[in-house]
Amino acid sequence: MSDRYDVVIIGAGPGGYVAAIRAAQLGLRTACIESRGRLGGTCLNIGCIASKALLQSSHKFAEAGRHLAEHGVKIGKPELDLASMMGRKDNVVTTLTRGVEFLFRKNKIDWVKGKGRIAAPGRVIVSGTDDASQEIEAGSIVIATGSASSPLTGIEIDEKRVVSSTGALALDRVPGRLVVIGGGYIGLELGSVWQRLGAKVTVVEVLDHIVPNMDRELGTALQRVLARSGMEFKLATKVADLRTGEDDLILELEGAERQSLTADVVLVSIGRRPYTEALGLEAIGVARDEHGRVVVDDGFATNIPGIYAIGDAIRGPMLAHKAEERESRLPNGSPGRRRLSTTMQSQRWSTPGRRLPQSVRLKKNSRRLRFLTGSGDSRSPPIPARGPTVTPRASSRSSRRARRTGYSASTLSAPMPAP
Ligand SMILES: Cc1cc2nc3c(=O)[nH]c(=O)nc-3n(C[C@H](O)[C@H](O)[C@H](O)COP(=O)(O)OP(=O)(O)OC[C@H]3O[C@@H](n4cnc5c(N)ncnc54)[C@H](O)[C@@H]3O)c2cc1C
Question: Average pLDDT of 54-79?
Answer without folding.
Answer: 92
